[in-house]
Amino acid sequence: MKVLILRPSYVPEISGGTHLAVDLVEDMIANDIEVILVVPAPFRADDKVKEEYRNLKTEKQFDDKLIIHRINIFAGEKSLFSRALRMFLLTVGMFIQSLKTKNVDLIMSHSMPPFLGPISTLLGKIKKVPVLYWEQDIVSESLITTGVASKGMKKKLFYSFAKNLEKISSKGSDHIITISEDFRKRQISMGKPEDKVDVVYNWIDTNQLKPIPRRNNLMFQRYNLDPNNFYVTYCGNLGIPQNVEILVDAAKELQHIKDLRFLIFGNGVRKETISNYINNSGANNIKLLPLQPLEEASHVYSVGEVGVVIGRKGTARNGFPSKTWSIMSAGQAIISCFDIDSELSNFVREGECGIAVHPDDPIALKNAILELYNNPLQTKEYGRNARNYVSSKFSRDAATENIINIAKELEQSKKII
Q1: What is the largest CA-CA distance in the chain?
Q2: Strands 58-61 and 66-71
Q3: Could you report the per-residue pLDDT of 207-237, keeping only the tens digit for each?
């Protein structure tokens, strides 16, 4: 069986979903599935990596069972227009490259960039193979919650356009995998038959991402961190949905506590904005550090006693932060500053992994941090609970096996027809 996968990133790109792609590809190959991967060239990476991959268009790995085609587009993301242009050009490049790919049995697509789903359904019709759509994001809802399209005609046009792209992706796909029960219900409400939609929660490999003692943690040496401090960390994307400013506000309110420190490991379109916000806040207890390579994720997520997940109000309608499982797998207590009735916040409460507070509320966030700082034994208990919870419910093996079985059944069903 040979699968063509189109997705928004792959190693060495540093992004939230990269480890999911790596795990799935490795496990597909272990199950005798050949993979052809069509992805953008690394964009959120340092200059050395970008230069290395500038002219590297094709790679072969795993004894040629994995072929990676990388599409290089020279367009930035400094404005909404440039981001949209980059997404469109990438999609065109990925479509052309995918057309050249022969003898595939299945196409697996992704919800980002938003044009990827529709062109994958077109590819499925051209190649006469089934399409499996992996819905990680809901762009139409994201436009609203991030304020990109918040009012008037702009809201109506942007929202309608994104909604139509999602409908095309949904209707044209033979099967859909969503990352939450809420996403599944939404697909069914759009007319997709229940037996054509499955939930596979994002996962974490707890054998790979595990707690690292501070004496062995590379981050403490690399960034000259005092191992005697109590650390609160945010790790991940610095975009519009992530209202990271409230963490800076909370840090400023708590800077009188000398051994309480805040670290942001992040990158994204708002990195410069967040850096300026920190500098202008006057907070002296918070550092903005670059995202680290995927292979050092255990070190990054083990730095702090507490890991924070932040999303603006309504963000739960358009995504699920995969960093949640990384925080838990590293044995950190978690503060979910997210929609209070979301699956994420429910998981935090159900697993007794930390504290869930309302989004966009720096005072609630500050109070949650104080509660964990003042109760170190409870914080350690939350961390132990978190690792146990994610190990038992969101393991890599069960999740990738589920996706692989869906792909195989889909490919076999088309052969029967």
Answers
A1: 69
A2: antiparallel
A3: 999 999 999 999 999 999 999 999 999 999 9
Residue 91 token pair? 């999609």
| Closest CA relative to residue 115, chosen from 190, 2, 6, 270 | 6
* Predicted local confidence at residue 153, as pLDDT: 57
Domains present along the chain, CATH in parentheses: 2-203+395-416 (3.40.50.2000), 214-393 (3.40.50.2000)
Of the pLDDT bands very low, low, confident and very high (cuts 50, 70, 90), residue 361 is: very high
Rounded to an integer, the average pLDDT of 62-77 is 88
What average pLDDT is seen over the chain?
92
pTM above 0.85, yes or no: yes
237, 267 in Cβ contact below 8 A? yes
